[in-house]
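I have been asked to look over a protein record a colleague put together. What it holds is a sequence and that sequence's fold in C-alpha coordinate form. Please read both lines and tell me whether the C-alpha coordinates look consistent with the sequence. I do not need a full report, just your reasoning and any doubts. This is what I was given:
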Amino acid sequence: MPLQPHLKRIIEDREFLNREEAASLMRQLLTGDLNEVQLAALLSAFSMRGEDPAEIAGFVDVMRAAATVVPLEPAERAVLVDTCGTGADLSGTFNISTAAALVAAAAGATLAKHGNRAVTSQCGSADVLEALGIPVSLSPAEGAAALRQHRFAFFHAPALHPAMKTVMPVRRTLGIRTIFHLVGPLSNPAGARAQVMGVYAPHLVSRAAEAMVLLGTRHAFVVHGETGSSPNGSRRSSLGEAFSRGEAFSRGLDELSISGPSQIAEVRAETITLSTIAPEDLGLQRAPIDTLQGGNAATNAAILTAVFSGEKSSRRDVVLLNAAAVLVTAELAPDLPAGLQLAAETIDRGAVTELVAALRRNP
Protein backbone atom coordinates (compact mmCIF):
# COMPACT_ATOMS: atom_id res chain seq x y z
CA MET A 1 0.00 0.00 0.00
CA PRO A 2 1.40 3.48 -0.83
CA LEU A 3 2.52 5.55 2.14
CA GLN A 4 0.40 8.63 1.39
CA PRO A 5 -2.93 7.12 2.58
CA HIS A 6 -1.29 6.20 5.90
CA LEU A 7 0.07 9.72 6.32
CA LYS A 8 -3.32 11.23 5.50
CA ARG A 9 -5.07 9.06 8.06
CA ILE A 10 -2.49 9.77 10.77
CA ILE A 11 -1.86 13.49 10.16
CA GLU A 12 -5.03 14.90 8.63
CA ASP A 13 -7.70 12.59 10.02
CA ARG A 14 -5.88 11.71 13.27
CA GLU A 15 -7.01 8.13 12.89
CA PHE A 16 -5.33 5.08 14.38
CA LEU A 17 -4.26 1.99 12.46
CA ASN A 18 -5.39 -1.40 13.64
CA ARG A 19 -2.83 -4.04 14.56
CA GLU A 20 -2.80 -5.72 11.16
CA GLU A 21 -2.46 -2.40 9.32
CA ALA A 22 0.40 -1.35 11.57
CA ALA A 23 2.16 -4.67 11.00
CA SER A 24 1.81 -4.27 7.24
CA LEU A 25 3.24 -0.78 7.43
CA MET A 26 6.14 -1.99 9.59
CA ARG A 27 7.03 -4.64 7.00
CA GLN A 28 7.10 -1.89 4.41
CA LEU A 29 9.47 0.16 6.58
CA LEU A 30 11.88 -2.73 7.09
CA THR A 31 12.11 -3.58 3.40
CA GLY A 32 13.71 -0.20 2.73
CA ASP A 33 11.07 0.70 0.13
CA LEU A 34 10.53 4.15 1.67
CA ASN A 35 12.97 6.96 1.08
CA GLU A 36 14.33 8.95 4.03
CA VAL A 37 11.87 11.83 3.58
CA GLN A 38 8.90 9.47 3.64
CA LEU A 39 10.22 7.60 6.66
CA ALA A 40 10.95 10.81 8.56
CA ALA A 41 7.45 12.09 7.78
CA LEU A 42 5.86 8.88 9.02
CA LEU A 43 7.83 8.73 12.29
CA SER A 44 7.12 12.41 12.93
CA ALA A 45 3.44 11.86 12.22
CA PHE A 46 3.19 9.08 14.81
CA SER A 47 5.03 11.21 17.37
CA MET A 48 2.82 14.27 16.85
CA ARG A 49 -0.47 12.34 16.96
CA GLY A 50 0.58 9.78 19.60
CA GLU A 51 0.95 6.02 19.27
CA ASP A 52 -1.96 3.66 19.87
CA PRO A 53 -1.38 0.34 21.73
CA ALA A 54 -2.58 -1.65 18.71
CA GLU A 55 -0.10 0.19 16.48
CA ILE A 56 2.72 -0.51 18.93
CA ALA A 57 1.74 -4.18 19.06
CA GLY A 58 1.62 -4.44 15.27
CA PHE A 59 5.10 -2.97 14.95
CA VAL A 60 6.40 -5.32 17.67
CA ASP A 61 4.89 -8.35 15.94
CA VAL A 62 7.02 -7.65 12.88
CA MET A 63 10.12 -6.72 14.88
CA ARG A 64 9.98 -9.98 16.79
CA ALA A 65 9.44 -12.02 13.64
CA ALA A 66 12.40 -10.34 11.93
CA ALA A 67 14.80 -10.72 14.89
CA THR A 68 17.69 -13.18 14.85
CA VAL A 69 16.57 -16.26 16.77
CA VAL A 70 18.18 -17.04 20.12
CA PRO A 71 18.26 -20.85 20.43
CA LEU A 72 16.31 -21.55 23.62
CA GLU A 73 13.71 -24.14 24.55
CA PRO A 74 10.16 -22.92 25.29
CA ALA A 75 10.59 -23.72 28.98
CA GLU A 76 13.74 -21.59 29.04
CA ARG A 77 12.01 -18.65 27.38
CA ALA A 78 9.11 -18.87 29.83
CA VAL A 79 11.25 -17.72 32.78
CA LEU A 80 13.11 -14.87 31.07
CA VAL A 81 12.85 -11.31 32.34
CA ASP A 82 14.08 -8.06 30.73
CA THR A 83 14.71 -4.57 32.08
CA CYS A 84 14.93 -2.68 28.79
CA GLY A 85 13.23 0.71 28.93
CA THR A 86 12.58 3.51 26.48
CA GLY A 87 15.52 5.69 27.49
CA ALA A 88 15.27 9.31 26.31
CA ASP A 89 14.29 10.65 29.74
CA LEU A 90 17.30 13.01 29.62
CA SER A 91 17.78 12.61 33.39
CA GLY A 92 21.54 11.95 33.32
CA THR A 93 21.32 9.15 35.90
CA PHE A 94 23.65 6.17 35.97
CA ASN A 95 22.58 2.83 34.45
CA ILE A 96 19.95 1.92 37.03
CA SER A 97 18.06 -0.75 35.07
CA THR A 98 21.30 -2.51 34.09
CA ALA A 99 22.39 -2.59 37.73
CA ALA A 100 18.95 -3.89 38.73
CA ALA A 101 19.20 -6.64 36.12
CA LEU A 102 22.52 -7.88 37.54
CA VAL A 103 21.18 -7.82 41.10
CA ALA A 104 18.06 -9.76 40.08
CA ALA A 105 20.14 -12.34 38.20
CA ALA A 106 22.37 -12.84 41.23
CA ALA A 107 19.20 -13.32 43.31
CA GLY A 108 17.94 -16.12 41.06
CA ALA A 109 16.07 -14.50 38.16
CA THR A 110 17.05 -15.20 34.55
CA LEU A 111 17.77 -11.92 32.78
CA ALA A 112 17.85 -11.58 29.01
CA LYS A 113 19.04 -7.98 29.09
CA HIS A 114 18.15 -6.25 25.85
CA GLY A 115 19.84 -2.93 25.14
CA ASN A 116 22.08 -0.69 23.11
CA ARG A 117 24.96 1.72 23.29
CA ALA A 118 24.36 5.33 24.25
CA VAL A 119 21.97 7.23 21.99
CA THR A 120 20.45 9.98 24.14
CA SER A 121 22.81 9.64 27.12
CA GLN A 122 26.53 9.45 27.83
CA CYS A 123 26.43 5.76 28.61
CA GLY A 124 24.11 3.01 27.40
CA SER A 125 23.69 -0.46 28.90
CA ALA A 126 26.19 -1.97 26.46
CA ASP A 127 28.74 0.70 27.33
CA VAL A 128 28.61 0.19 31.09
CA LEU A 129 28.63 -3.60 30.85
CA GLU A 130 31.63 -3.45 28.57
CA ALA A 131 33.38 -1.15 31.07
CA LEU A 132 32.67 -3.77 33.76
CA GLY A 133 34.38 -6.37 31.56
CA ILE A 134 31.17 -8.20 30.66
CA PRO A 135 30.91 -9.27 26.99
CA VAL A 136 28.24 -7.43 25.02
CA SER A 137 28.76 -8.93 21.55
CA LEU A 138 27.64 -12.49 22.17
CA SER A 139 26.27 -14.55 19.33
CA PRO A 140 22.74 -15.92 19.84
CA ALA A 141 24.19 -19.32 20.78
CA GLU A 142 26.67 -17.75 23.21
CA GLY A 143 23.87 -15.70 24.75
CA ALA A 144 21.77 -18.81 25.26
CA ALA A 145 24.72 -20.55 26.91
CA ALA A 146 25.33 -17.57 29.21
CA LEU A 147 21.68 -17.63 30.30
CA ARG A 148 21.95 -21.32 31.17
CA GLN A 149 25.22 -20.92 33.05
CA HIS A 150 24.89 -17.51 34.71
CA ARG A 151 21.20 -16.52 34.40
CA PHE A 152 22.36 -13.33 32.67
CA ALA A 153 23.16 -12.42 29.08
CA PHE A 154 23.23 -9.15 27.21
CA PHE A 155 21.59 -9.02 23.79
CA HIS A 156 22.78 -6.09 21.70
CA ALA A 157 19.75 -4.72 19.87
CA PRO A 158 21.43 -3.70 16.57
CA ALA A 159 23.09 -7.11 16.20
CA LEU A 160 19.89 -9.09 16.71
CA HIS A 161 17.52 -6.76 14.86
CA PRO A 162 19.42 -6.41 11.56
CA ALA A 163 16.31 -5.27 9.69
CA MET A 164 16.38 -2.05 11.70
CA LYS A 165 19.44 -0.83 9.80
CA THR A 166 17.10 0.78 7.27
CA VAL A 167 15.43 2.85 9.99
CA MET A 168 18.28 3.79 12.33
CA PRO A 169 19.94 6.50 10.19
CA VAL A 170 16.66 8.42 9.95
CA ARG A 171 16.00 8.02 13.69
CA ARG A 172 19.42 9.45 14.48
CA THR A 173 18.99 12.32 12.04
CA LEU A 174 15.55 13.21 13.40
CA GLY A 175 16.82 13.25 16.97
CA ILE A 176 13.31 13.01 18.46
CA ARG A 177 11.44 10.38 20.40
CA THR A 178 9.59 8.07 18.03
CA ILE A 179 7.39 4.98 18.18
CA PHE A 180 10.58 2.89 18.14
CA HIS A 181 11.39 4.03 21.68
CA LEU A 182 8.36 1.96 22.67
CA VAL A 183 8.68 -0.82 20.10
CA GLY A 184 12.33 -1.62 20.84
CA PRO A 185 11.95 -2.49 24.54
CA LEU A 186 9.01 -4.78 23.71
CA SER A 187 10.98 -6.72 21.09
CA ASN A 188 13.32 -8.80 23.25
CA PRO A 189 15.06 -11.19 20.81
CA ALA A 190 15.28 -13.98 23.37
CA GLY A 191 11.50 -13.96 23.84
CA ALA A 192 11.23 -12.64 27.41
CA ARG A 193 7.58 -12.45 28.45
CA ALA A 194 8.19 -10.71 31.78
CA GLN A 195 9.66 -7.24 32.05
CA VAL A 196 10.20 -4.04 33.97
CA MET A 197 9.88 -1.31 31.35
CA GLY A 198 10.54 2.30 32.21
CA VAL A 199 8.97 4.96 29.99
CA TYR A 200 10.16 8.54 29.51
CA ALA A 201 6.74 10.21 29.98
CA PRO A 202 3.82 9.52 32.33
CA HIS A 203 1.15 9.24 29.64
CA LEU A 204 3.02 6.26 28.17
CA VAL A 205 2.59 4.11 31.28
CA SER A 206 -0.93 2.93 30.45
CA ARG A 207 -0.27 2.98 26.71
CA ALA A 208 2.68 0.59 26.94
CA ALA A 209 0.79 -1.62 29.41
CA GLU A 210 -2.13 -1.96 26.98
CA ALA A 211 0.30 -2.95 24.22
CA MET A 212 1.80 -5.58 26.55
CA VAL A 213 -1.63 -7.13 27.08
CA LEU A 214 -2.11 -7.42 23.33
CA LEU A 215 1.34 -9.02 23.03
CA GLY A 216 0.70 -11.71 25.65
CA THR A 217 3.04 -10.45 28.34
CA ARG A 218 3.05 -12.77 31.37
CA HIS A 219 3.95 -10.31 34.12
CA ALA A 220 5.38 -6.81 33.88
CA PHE A 221 5.67 -3.39 35.44
CA VAL A 222 5.58 -0.26 33.29
CA VAL A 223 6.96 2.62 35.33
CA HIS A 224 7.67 6.33 35.24
CA GLY A 225 9.34 8.05 38.18
CA GLU A 226 8.83 11.67 39.10
CA THR A 227 11.75 13.84 40.21
CA GLY A 228 10.47 17.40 40.04
CA SER A 229 7.44 19.60 39.58
CA SER A 230 5.21 20.12 36.59
CA PRO A 231 5.97 22.97 34.16
CA ASN A 232 3.59 25.38 35.92
CA GLY A 233 5.16 24.58 39.28
CA SER A 234 2.18 22.67 40.69
CA ARG A 235 1.92 19.03 41.62
CA ARG A 236 -0.62 16.76 39.96
CA SER A 237 -3.62 16.25 42.16
CA SER A 238 -4.30 12.61 41.36
CA LEU A 239 -3.01 9.62 39.44
CA GLY A 240 -6.24 9.45 37.42
CA GLU A 241 -5.88 13.04 36.26
CA ALA A 242 -2.27 12.38 35.30
CA PHE A 243 -3.24 9.46 33.09
CA SER A 244 -6.20 11.22 31.51
CA ARG A 245 -4.29 14.39 30.65
CA GLY A 246 -1.08 12.68 29.54
CA GLU A 247 0.71 15.49 31.40
CA ALA A 248 4.50 15.46 31.27
CA PHE A 249 6.68 16.51 34.15
CA SER A 250 9.69 18.69 33.56
CA ARG A 251 11.93 16.02 35.00
CA GLY A 252 11.19 12.33 35.09
CA LEU A 253 12.82 8.91 34.98
CA ASP A 254 12.20 5.82 32.92
CA GLU A 255 12.81 3.99 36.22
CA LEU A 256 11.16 3.64 39.60
CA SER A 257 12.19 6.76 41.48
CA ILE A 258 13.41 7.56 44.99
CA SER A 259 13.28 11.29 44.19
CA GLY A 260 9.49 11.42 44.00
CA PRO A 261 6.43 9.23 43.41
CA SER A 262 6.39 6.65 40.64
CA GLN A 263 3.46 5.82 38.39
CA ILE A 264 3.09 2.09 37.85
CA ALA A 265 1.02 -0.16 35.62
CA GLU A 266 1.30 -3.79 36.66
CA VAL A 267 0.42 -6.22 33.88
CA ARG A 268 -0.62 -9.78 34.70
CA ALA A 269 -1.80 -11.55 31.56
CA GLU A 270 -4.87 -9.52 30.51
CA THR A 271 -5.17 -7.48 33.71
CA ILE A 272 -3.69 -3.98 34.20
CA THR A 273 -3.53 -2.39 37.65
CA LEU A 274 -2.59 1.30 37.89
CA SER A 275 -1.05 2.70 41.05
CA THR A 276 1.39 5.22 42.40
CA ILE A 277 4.03 4.67 45.04
CA ALA A 278 6.38 6.97 46.92
CA PRO A 279 9.79 5.87 48.23
CA GLU A 280 8.60 6.45 51.80
CA ASP A 281 5.86 3.85 51.25
CA LEU A 282 8.60 1.22 51.08
CA GLY A 283 10.77 2.58 53.86
CA LEU A 284 13.22 4.29 51.51
CA GLN A 285 14.51 7.79 52.09
CA ARG A 286 13.70 10.30 49.37
CA ALA A 287 16.86 11.63 47.70
CA PRO A 288 17.51 14.46 45.22
CA ILE A 289 17.94 13.39 41.62
CA ASP A 290 21.38 14.99 41.65
CA THR A 291 22.62 12.19 43.91
CA LEU A 292 21.87 9.67 41.14
CA GLN A 293 23.79 11.38 38.37
CA GLY A 294 26.11 9.30 36.22
CA GLY A 295 28.72 10.03 33.60
CA ASN A 296 30.66 8.12 31.00
CA ALA A 297 31.06 4.35 30.90
CA ALA A 298 34.02 4.27 33.29
CA THR A 299 32.25 6.51 35.81
CA ASN A 300 29.06 4.45 35.72
CA ALA A 301 30.96 1.16 35.98
CA ALA A 302 32.64 2.52 39.12
CA ILE A 303 29.21 3.47 40.55
CA LEU A 304 27.83 -0.02 39.90
CA THR A 305 30.92 -1.63 41.42
CA ALA A 306 30.52 0.47 44.57
CA VAL A 307 26.83 -0.43 44.87
CA PHE A 308 27.55 -4.12 44.37
CA SER A 309 30.32 -3.91 46.99
CA GLY A 310 27.84 -2.80 49.64
CA GLU A 311 27.94 0.99 49.47
CA LYS A 312 25.09 2.46 51.53
CA SER A 313 23.70 5.38 49.54
CA SER A 314 20.78 6.70 47.54
CA ARG A 315 22.33 4.94 44.53
CA ARG A 316 21.99 1.63 46.33
CA ASP A 317 18.39 2.43 47.27
CA VAL A 318 17.29 3.18 43.69
CA VAL A 319 18.96 -0.03 42.46
CA LEU A 320 17.24 -2.04 45.20
CA LEU A 321 13.85 -0.56 44.30
CA ASN A 322 14.16 -1.37 40.62
CA ALA A 323 15.63 -4.81 41.29
CA ALA A 324 12.68 -5.51 43.60
CA ALA A 325 10.28 -4.95 40.71
CA VAL A 326 12.27 -7.36 38.55
CA LEU A 327 12.14 -10.01 41.27
CA VAL A 328 8.36 -9.65 41.51
CA THR A 329 7.93 -10.15 37.76
CA ALA A 330 10.27 -13.17 37.98
CA GLU A 331 7.93 -14.60 40.67
CA LEU A 332 10.80 -14.68 43.18
CA ALA A 333 9.15 -12.14 45.48
CA PRO A 334 5.43 -11.70 46.20
CA ASP A 335 5.59 -7.90 46.40
CA LEU A 336 7.97 -4.94 46.34
CA PRO A 337 8.85 -4.99 50.08
CA ALA A 338 9.87 -8.64 49.83
CA GLY A 339 11.75 -7.89 46.63
CA LEU A 340 13.64 -5.08 48.36
CA GLN A 341 14.71 -7.42 51.13
CA LEU A 342 15.86 -10.12 48.72
CA ALA A 343 17.79 -7.61 46.59
CA ALA A 344 19.53 -6.16 49.65
CA GLU A 345 20.46 -9.61 50.95
CA THR A 346 21.82 -10.55 47.52
CA ILE A 347 24.12 -7.54 47.40
CA ASP A 348 25.22 -7.88 51.02
CA ARG A 349 26.29 -11.52 50.64
CA GLY A 350 28.49 -10.57 47.68
CA ALA A 351 26.48 -12.50 45.09
CA VAL A 352 26.35 -9.65 42.56
CA THR A 353 30.11 -9.08 42.72
CA GLU A 354 30.59 -12.83 42.24
CA LEU A 355 28.26 -12.83 39.22
CA VAL A 356 30.12 -9.94 37.56
CA ALA A 357 33.42 -11.76 38.12
CA ALA A 358 32.00 -14.96 36.64
CA LEU A 359 30.67 -13.15 33.58
CA ARG A 360 34.12 -11.64 33.02
CA ARG A 361 35.89 -15.01 33.30
CA ASN A 362 33.48 -17.22 31.43
CA PRO A 363 30.92 -15.39 29.29
